Amino acid sequence: MPTVECDPDDARRRLEEAGVSVKSGNTEYERWRAERGDASAVAYDDKVVVQGANPADLLTILQPKGGRAHVYFDGASRGNPGPAAIGWAIVTSNGIVAEGSKRIGETTNNRAEYEALIEALSVAKDYGYDEVDVRGDSQLIVKQVRGEWKTNDPGLRERRVKANELLAAFDRWSLEHVPREINDRADSLANEALDDA
Prior knowledge:
The protein contains six helices and ten strands.
């Protein structure tokens, strides 16, 4: 069971700001209890103990802000343009910290890739990471965002600017193109969102 040495009042405030419901403890020794996803937390005088199938659901909020994360993103479009979806995952030494997917309507594959990147970076910033290593299987998006390739399409150019603004908010970042096998979780999430429609 992971234990976070912290001020329980500060930890409670962080949880409530993240939208997590915090309840009274079950014993005289417990300050409070909280649940999110597959994790639960119990606060004592100088620490919070986290348990459950996926402790990362709460650890990222409870731990002091900062640190480094690997961010994976993928967009998918069936038809180009056609029905589209995005998928992303944030991974640390604690495992998958957060992941998500959603349908984004009708658009091109490249626009879906950008939307996935923007969503993943926004979530990583909300989680408080100050260093990110970003990985995606779209060479076009990676090279455009890094400034190696021109972005002629106005819609993509606007998304590239947004992605660069989000990246600039981190103390350190890297953006690399990886094979689809390395990006399989984000790829699966995007395709599952399309399949579920």
